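[Q] Does anyone have a clean structure-token version of this?
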Amino acid sequence: MLTDDFLDYFRTERNKSDLTVESYRIDLEEFESFFESLNESITWTTVDEGIVREWVIYLIDGMHLKPTSVNRKLSALRSFFHYLVRMKLVERNPMTRITGPKKQKPLPAFVRESEMDELLERLDEDKSYEGILSKAIVLTLYLTGMRRAEILSLCDNDVDFHSRQLKVTGKRNKQRIIPFGEELDAQLREYIQARTEKFGIGFATLFVCPKGNAMTAAKLTKIVKDGLSMVTTQQKRSPHVLRHTFATSMLNTGADLASIQKLLGHASLATTQVYTHVSFEELKTAYQNAHPRS
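[A] Here you go.
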């Protein structure tokens, strides 16, 4: 059989492991069973591109396989037909224009509004310097969507309380202005007062660790992780989760994508569009949970 000859070649000439060879055998047998079910007259030498495409559709829609599994099976076919062409057993390779399904990117993790409300209430209970600092950091990330590196680089001069604006320096030193409201205004004022009372004035960065040194990435991440651990069991509890939470909240409350793009500092609108999928998944979940016949 053609497949047996190929698998022997694959094992001996290409030095493939027994596990890989067996995996390819299974994939080739599955495809052979598929095209024979379509028409008994079809053989490996008469398989065309259309039949391969039908198989891909069957794997995705009929078998509900993930893109990774489908692409692995297509890899077996590509190797086999490349072998058949090389051995001059077929004139045309039906895999030439076949592209596998794209791997789905995981949706950004975010925290629900109710969970954020609970977190901010709990952080507000601690009026020590560290408690006020923690709430200021969490609230700044949640209400501005800044990246971790951006909040770490904030200076006192970047906060304009008169206009309620933050000057943020993003990737490639691009600057943008992010407005903020009364809640963040009050929290930042409270924090700066607490910092002044504890350490005095003259700091290079806005946020200062409880020991008096500039806020570090590790300390900021720990503050956020510890805070989110109070209200959510999800695995991802990083500062970037609060960035995703900001964007999702903005979209869910009616902000347009172009505005969210500017606030986040995305170079491309396509990057921002991922939050429309998050919002849709939220809507779908809410419908399934609430509608009596969903």
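[Q] Thanks! Anything notable?
[A] The chain is about 60% helix and 5% strand.
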